Each structure stands twice: as structure tokens, then as C-alpha cells.
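#dry-run=false #mode=assembly
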Amino acid sequence: MKQVRLGIIGAGRIGNVHSQSVANDPAAVAVAITDINRDSAEQLASMHGISRVADTSRELLDSPDIDAVLICSSTNTHADLIVQAAQAGKHIFCEKPIDYDLARIDRSLDAVERARVKLQLGFNRRFDSNFARVKKAIETGEIGRPRLLHIISRDPGPPPISYVKSSGGMFFDMTIHDFDMARFLMGEEVEEIYTAAGVMVDPAIGNVGDVDTAMITLRFASGAIGIIDNCREAAYGYDQRVEVLGSKGSIHTGNRYPNQAIVSTGASVRRDLPLNFFMDRYAESFALEMRSFIRAIREDTPTLVTGIDGRIPVAMGIAALRSHQEGKPVKLSTISSTTATRS
Amino acid sequence: MKQVRLGIIGAGRIGNVHSQSVANDPAAVAVAITDINRDSAEQLASMHGISRVADTSRELLDSPDIDAVLICSSTNTHADLIVQAAQAGKHIFCEKPIDYDLARIDRSLDAVERARVKLQLGFNRRFDSNFARVKKAIETGEIGRPRLLHIISRDPGPPPISYVKSSGGMFFDMTIHDFDMARFLMGEEVEEIYTAAGVMVDPAIGNVGDVDTAMITLRFASGAIGIIDNCREAAYGYDQRVEVLGSKGSIHTGNRYPNQAIVSTGASVRRDLPLNFFMDRYAESFALEMRSFIRAIREDTPTLVTGIDGRIPVAMGIAALRSHQEGKPVKLSTISSTTATRS
Amino acid sequence: MKQVRLGIIGAGRIGNVHSQSVANDPAAVAVAITDINRDSAEQLASMHGISRVADTSRELLDSPDIDAVLICSSTNTHADLIVQAAQAGKHIFCEKPIDYDLARIDRSLDAVERARVKLQLGFNRRFDSNFARVKKAIETGEIGRPRLLHIISRDPGPPPISYVKSSGGMFFDMTIHDFDMARFLMGEEVEEIYTAAGVMVDPAIGNVGDVDTAMITLRFASGAIGIIDNCREAAYGYDQRVEVLGSKGSIHTGNRYPNQAIVSTGASVRRDLPLNFFMDRYAESFALEMRSFIRAIREDTPTLVTGIDGRIPVAMGIAALRSHQEGKPVKLSTISSTTATRS
Amino acid sequence: MKQVRLGIIGAGRIGNVHSQSVANDPAAVAVAITDINRDSAEQLASMHGISRVADTSRELLDSPDIDAVLICSSTNTHADLIVQAAQAGKHIFCEKPIDYDLARIDRSLDAVERARVKLQLGFNRRFDSNFARVKKAIETGEIGRPRLLHIISRDPGPPPISYVKSSGGMFFDMTIHDFDMARFLMGEEVEEIYTAAGVMVDPAIGNVGDVDTAMITLRFASGAIGIIDNCREAAYGYDQRVEVLGSKGSIHTGNRYPNQAIVSTGASVRRDLPLNFFMDRYAESFALEMRSFIRAIREDTPTLVTGIDGRIPVAMGIAALRSHQEGKPVKLSTISSTTATRS
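#status=ok
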């Protein structure tokens, strides 16, 4: 196949990241971009040499010279755009989450299936060399059969309250990455979730019905047990680590740092703080996920993060929230309600 | 005060450790030792220069030249020996646990209180320089108000099944140290416990009604949340680590290694395995706890690990077991039954 | 200033690296490329969207639409090309070394000075975040006045013998980077060099008159002392570290690794090997040095690696070689011979 | 053999350390101690249960119930005491150095050889688990044939000037340990030494003719090359590390720390300073060297640090000093002068 021709929907921060990745990959070319704010679209077009700025996503989806679209717009538009793109016969890369409503997610996935187009979800952390290394240790049997999993996932500081109100809350905007990571690493599904959570960072977060700190227990189908450690604020910055104990050994990952320098003075032996947030920490994984999507199209192979991978973490978020509300473990099999509701 | 005169009850492995510590502390002298196996007692007496071997613990408790006793005999004798020692007016160092029956523990503590003698429990890990450093970081405010606690506590391999049968099970012979550590580090009590556990190491352990792997969630009175990660087997050896996230930062500890050498070859960058079991790993803390007990007697100050510190971890074990059995969180305040019972 | 228009001379591996950097920097554009192998030039032109392939460097230097050239051709062409580019009024980025003959270097630098164009030498390691952090620690006084410097610089394996024959030898093709690093970090000049070196990796290297392993002592003007540890082969890969002891503390840097994962099994606690060679290890610094050169042109500021920075390391190489040949320390001030000669 | 009966000559700090080691080793007993300050001797006797305080070393050497002596008195007494002890038929453990005069050393070693008694020198660092691990990596071929050696050996702060005046200077009181380490690790002799040294810590040290900072190059018989990095002052404390590059890999050791805790705050990721001086850092190795001496006597095997191991480091110190004075490399084979003389 020749170069994959891409259309980009959404010219915000993540649209910029993906445009840059496409510009650096000789296997693809971005032929058009659109955004509800035309200025943003024009700026990215100029920066990354994208020749056309479309007025609407509709116009872009109707363009016959586009093979695939990158959905980088706001979350509430994802489900509909997936349906429209699928109906237009375009392959789809969509930022997570698809939606917070399982019924809407299911409609999107149905459309994708009927259209037989490819769909890849933006769980970029799967492409991080640390987590990929853990996955490999599990898959190759290097550490034997997994028994216990730790996912440490802490942000440098809480987002604005306005974001917390609209995002669906911590379990949906933050833990969702960790739910995906848990499934990805272990290669199996979670059956039951127990959430211990609270408001420890900022009472304002509690006032809008959310939590900011949690320890979430996951029971996997095999009997293995995991925990996710989440906090909206870590004074020392972005903290993203994983540890797995298996029958033959363990693997754990550390953070990434701007340098490998150690300074020793009369006060302490110290190093600089870790890379502070996801744009720096996961720069490599953003590039790799886009390359992976482009390759899946060119080589007509399955994408590495599928539609169902976009659905299950949302169901896990619903279960985690319900466990928190009810104070007891919740089985994933009972998640029939289709929307997360915060008290 | 002149040298503290000690009598040692029990000449097994832990009796040997404490005898050695006493021999190296100029502030105390071991004047007598006893054991149900007289040969063992005579051997230790010879190794550590203890002048007298008593026939029975009774004879030892009746000796007017003894200020304090070290109870290093089997667990089922602890509660009665504490009562007898207290009635004989001796200060008491007792290996953990006091008992698995809360009513028996309470009778022991009553006797100690009435006799106004000192009692110190053998939670030696409190004296480990790593955990003491974490405690200091919390107490001095170095990491701010604690939010999340991790205790990783894995053994190199499972004990014999016979031991599992008689020990009360993993929550009582292994986790009990971690329950104590959780209270010690956080400086507050646990209010609710949720246990996710299973048999992943050896089915034979499950056959006698015990588990070998667990992730235990602790909710503290302040709202802070902790987890204890336990496994009866870690292929790489003894694994004892702690991590606390606070409002101003975090602290975590690593394992101790026989050396600080790193070997780099064409295969990997590697180091030798950590110190393999508690006798090596906690050698320092065993010495420090005994010194602390001797100092408490000489200076007439409270012991650093009291009777109630011996009681609460047992109640926590009962709660953890019940949570495991019932599959839901258990409040500590509901622990009225006085004995742990395994199904 | 608008975009800097660049011409690239040499389409080999390093020409490719710099073409990519230019393509990612919106402040510059590569307008032409040339190579003695036209196919190579055309391939890079196609990959990086360079519109024109020039037949000769002369044609490129005569192009009025070119502001600056990147000299990425073989070392023996550097000195002449610098002279020609300067006379053509082009700013110059030149890969190291300029030449092995001090007289030829001086003629190049004279031409640059007369033409008042900018010259930057390709000592990319100065832009590595580790070494930049060490430089900062020294400049800001974080570790006080420097006393002792270690530069560890080991390659994964020796180059082909043909390369060793033509490169000028280890002191000129490998240590030259470390000589630059020594001056860069310490911010002062070396006055005397003592070389202890030998052939330990491959006798064939000795047969062509070179060494493959060395410990080179540097005495700085301030009295500080440094050593450079060089070996053509390290079984575990590319090893690039620095350590400085100062009056208030020390700083040392570690290698860079493909991931931050630690695997613990019954055999060892290990991690994967470091990034294996300079294209991976110094990827970031290659991009930053090019951005720095482009910025110097746009903002009309001095380049961060000047012509004299290209001359002195060659003089140091001559001194190091002479010290090795004579078995005694050599003062830099005595380097009047203009060419390195190997016995 | 039954318990080895030891006499201790010298009740200072190091006499105390060895007395403690003997007290903890059931294979030996200290039966007498002497010191020119009788109070010191009586104090140690009381602390460690040594039954007899001798008036003079003569009295002690004449005691028929003593198998071996530990010479812990001041350096200027070592050579004569070795001769006297050998003539009295006692095995000898002697603190380093034997003397600074090669002729006097030779007379001592002659006496030992004629008397066929055992002599062990107090190079305790050989028994440190880190350096022993490096030795093992070399001996077993784990890292192949050694090529380059680094010994980093820095003190927390300079000794009093009075000590510097009488000690023979840095090469004799500090580097002597590193000279021994170099020979011990590499298992071969140094043939040539080049010293680059200066006064960077305190001008008063220079005023009495000594240096306080040095980088010393060692050429081994095999062609391998080493450096010793010495400084009288490291702001962050006692720094004792080793690194060896071999044909199959490398090994390096780190410092020892009071704990393995890492604190992360908004300022840095840090740990506490390393163990601050040799009494803490090498506590283990002091105990092991004494156990090794006692075992050599009981089992009638050679000591692990012999008389010649005491002589050669002094010759190396003389060569290092001469290299410093003359500004050029010095061959060990030319060290015929028997005394170190500082200008």
C-alpha cells in the first residue's frame, strides 16, 4: 500500500501530538484537518504541512482521498463521529474514552463492525517501553504466572474543578488508563472490583461529588489480585509505575527522569524530579501508537487496541464507582446500567 | 540502676538471637535460661556465658536475682507465662503473638497492668532502620499528611504445612507483623479491613483452610488508605518494602542486599539477590529491640511496643480472615468474637 | 528572521540525522542536499522533503537561496569545505573533527573569521541532558569548586580496522569527544596530559599502530585533575558517564536505558542493557545541537560550540598520543607540531 | 584446637574494635590486654571481660598462656613489636602499616619467617562484602580479563594537621589501603605509578608538605591500568567505591547507607547520606578479618593478608610520592630507597 492518507478531527493539544507523529512517519500523510475553531486547525496545518483545512468533520469524512480519521475532538463527540466515520468507510483512531454510556459505546462498536473498518483506541500507555517490557515479561513467562499486580498512577496536581465536573470523575478520566493497563498487562479480565476512596487533596473535589484518592482492588478471572493506587496530586510530580509478582519472579518499573544525574552534597544524595506530565513522560508512546495504527492499515492487520478495549474500562469505571458508593465489592458481570452516575 | 538481670525462657532460634543481643549489651546480663529441652538450654548457656540453667520456667520466675524475663517459648505458652511472670513481679519481653484468643490476651494484659510491670512485644521490625526512617518522615511532617500506604511483605517460600496448621494461618503468623507496621507507621488505628486473598503458591495450603497470597485494604481513622501485599513465596527471596504517599511527598524503602555490587555483562545489568530471610534482614532490629527493652527497665520509661500493640494486630487478623470468608469489608469495631476461626 | 535556509553536504548516516532534525524544526528548511553518491542524496531528499539535489558542494555553495551549510561529508573534506563555505558567505555547521592537522584547522578558522560567518562544531554531547546537568551543577556552584573529574567513555565494540587506520586512531576518533567534554564541563583548559594506554581488545588494532584502551590524566589550569577512561569494547554496550567531585559535593551521571524495568528472579535482580550506541543514546542531543545552530543564525548570537572548540581537542589528541609514545606527561603548550603521527 | 588465647597490645579505638570482635567469636578468648595508658587498658578489659591487664607488652609477650597478639598500638611501635612477638613465638595480627621504612619492614618480616609464626596485616577492607564480591567476579571470570580499574576513596574530612605531619602523608595513611585494594582485587602487581596530586582542600596541608587530592595511575604487570581517586574531603561523607572493566563485562560497587529509604518531595528525589566513616562502613569487615585470623591459627592455614602484603603498599606509597615530586611515572622496580621523604 502507498502512504496512508489521514484526516484529523480536532486541533487541540492531542491533535497536535498526533499531527506531529504523522509528519514524522513516511508511511502516512495528513491531507486534511478540521476543528470547531478554524484558527486552531489552520495553525496546526501550517506547522505540520497539512495542505487542507476542512470546514466540518462532515466535509472531511466525505473526502474520497482520506483513508482514515483521527478523532481528537472532545469526548462527547466521539461516539457519533465513530458511527459517521464508519459509515463513511474510514478507518478510525479515536482518543479515549469513547463515551461514558455503555449503550452509546455499543452503538459505535456496532457501526464499526458493520462497516468492517479498523478502530484503534488511544490507550497510548500500552506503547510505553516500560509497560511493554512488563507485558513481555508476563507473556514470555519470564516471571511465571502472575499473582499480584500494583499499578501506581498519580498526577502532579488536580485538574480544574470544571474538568472534574464534566469528565465523569476520577474513575473515568484518570483510572480508565489504569483499568486498561490492568487488562493489557495481565492478558485477562477483571471479575470483581472493590474501591476504597476518599477526598484527601481538595474538598472542592468532594463538593462536586468526586474523589481524589483511591486504592482499588481488582480480582482477575485467574484468581490473581491487583490494586490500582490513584491520587490526583503527588508533590514530586507525575508518578507512573507498575509491579507484578509472578510465580517465578517479579518485575517493576520506575519513573522516567529528565536526566540520570545524582547530586551528593552535605544534605543528601538526590536527583531531579521525574518527567512532570504525560506529554513528556509518554512522548515516545504517542508516536508509537500512531505508527502502529498506520501500520495496521497498510498491512491490513488488526489494531493493537480494539473497540472492546475501549468499552471494558468504562464498565470497570462504573463498577469502581458503584463499589465506592455502596462500600462493598462489585462484580463486573452485574454492570447492566449503561451510564455512570455520581451521587 | 546497675545491670539488668535477665532470665530467658525458651532456647530455640529466637532465644539464641536474644541471648546474643544480651551478651553484647553491657547494660544487662543473662543470669539463667530454661527450656523444655534441657540440652538446648545448656548449649545456649555455654555459648553466651549464661551461668545457670533452670529446670523449669517456674524455678526461673521464682529466682529473686532476676529482674525481667524474655519469653521465647512456643506461642501457646505466651499468655500463661505473661500472667505468671507478672504475678512474680518480673518485667516481660514476649515474642509475638501473645495468643490468637482475644480473651486470653486480655487476661494477660490485665495481669501485667495489676502487677505494674513492663511488657514489650517482639515486633522487632519497628526497630529496622528503614521503617524507623519512614516513621520519622511521617512524624516530622517531611512528607506531609499520609494518604496512601503500601506494605509489601513476601516470604522466600512457604513454611511446612504442619506450621500452617498450627500457626493460625497467614494472617496470624505473617500479616500480623504488617498489621503492626501499618499502625506503627501511620500512628493511628485501622477502622475497616477488606481482604482479597487466594491460594496461588501451593494447593496444600488451601487444603488446610489457609491462603498464601493476599492484598488487604486498610481504612484508617483519618481516612487514609493502605494495602498490605502478602505472598508466602517470592522466587527472588525475602521482600520487605514500604511506601507512603503524603500531602508533601512520598517515602519508600528498598530491600537490603548482601552487597552493593552491580555486574554488567552482555546479558544484563544485575545485582545479587536481597538478604534472604528475617534472621539476616532484621539482625540489626533484633539487637535494637532488646537494647530498647533493657533501657526501658533501667531508665524506668515505657516500652516502645506495649501490650495493646500486641492485642490489636490479632484483632486485625480476625477481621482480615472474616473479610476473606465473607467477601466484604469488615469493621474492626465488630470484632467481638475472641478467637480466629478458619473454615 | 524568517526560516533559515540550509544546504546539506553529505547524505550519509549523520547527514540523515541532521536532515531529520531540520525537518522537525519549523525555524529552518533544508533547501538542497548533495553527496558524492547522488543516489544517497536523492534518497534523503525524498525522505525529508528536500526539494533540490545539487550535483556538487560547489553548486550548493553558489546558491544564493542558502543561508548556511551543514558539512556532513568525510573528515578529509572538512577543512577545505569550511574555507569555501566561509568565502561563499555561508554560516557553517561542521561535524567533528575539522581535521587532524593543526595548520589546516587554523587556515579554516582564519577563513571563518575573515568572512565573519558563524561556525558550530558537531560536539553534540554538550547538548545531552545528563552532561548539561553536570555543567549546570558546576556553573551554579551546586557542587562547589571542581577538584576531580571522571569521564567514562566506552564503545560497545571496536570499529573495523580500516576505520582505525584512517581515523587518526582512538585519541582522534573517540577520545576527541571526551577532550571536548572535559573542557566543556570544567570551563577551563587542560595544561598537561599523561596517557596510560594499551592494546587489550584486539591485537589487530595494535598491529596498525593504535591502542584500544586508555586511562588519560588531565591537569587543568586551576589545578583540578581529571581522568578519561576509554575502551573500544564494553561487553554490556555503550557506556557514557561522568563524575565530578567538587568542594561542596559531587555529581555523577548514569547511562540511559531502553526502559526502567527491574526483573527479580531466583537468579538475580536485573535490568536490560543500556541504549546500545550513539544514535540511540544521543538522539536527543543531535536534535538539540541543530536547533541551537539554527537559533544562533536566526537570533545572530554566537554558536555554543565554536571553531576554537574544534581546534583544542585535536591538540589534546596530539598531546595524548605523544605522552603515550614517550611514556611521560606532555604539556599542551609544547604542541607545536601540527600533525599527529603514529609510530 | 581449643580456643585461641589472645593478648591485645593497645587499648585505643582499634584495640576496642578488635576486643569486641574477639568477645563475639566463641573460637577465641582475650586473656590479657596492655596499653601505655593503663586506664584505657582497664576500661577495655572491663567492657569485654578480659581478665588480666598487663603492665607492659613485654610482660604480655612473656606470658606462656598467650597464643597470639593483636598489635593495635601506634605505628612507630609496630616493627619492633613484630620482631619481639615473633621471637616470643606468638602469632601476630598487626594493624597497618608495619612501618614507613622498607628496611625496618624487612627486618620484621625476617623475624616472622625465622620464627615460623603467622602474621596477618590489618587490611580489613579485603573482608568487606562489596570488595570481596568484586574479587570473586574477577577470580571466577564473571567479567573476564580485567582491563581498567577505578578505586574511589574519599574521606569525609581531613585529619588534624598534627596527624598529617606524623602519618607519612596521604599516600601512606590513606592511599595505602587503596594500594592494597588494587593488588588484592587484580591479583597481580603494579609495575609503574604516575601521580597527579595537589592541595585543594586546605592550604595548611600543603604547608606541611603533603597533598590532599590525587589521581594516581597504576600500570599492572598484565598491562591492565588502574586509577586511584583520593580526596581528604567529600562534603557528602565517606565515599568508597570500586569499578572494574573486564573483557566480558564490568562490576562496580556502591556506598553503604544507613537505610534504603527514598524521599520524594517537590524539591527532589533523595536519600540520606552514606554511612559516614570507616567504623560504621567497615564494621562488618573488622569482625570478619579477626575471625579469619583466629581461624588461620586454629586450622593452621596461611593468613589471608601476609607480611609481603604489608610491605608492597609502602613501596607503592614511596613510588607515588616520588612520582608526585618528579612529575613523571616511577617504576616500582626502582624503589630502592627505604624511606619515604617529603620535600
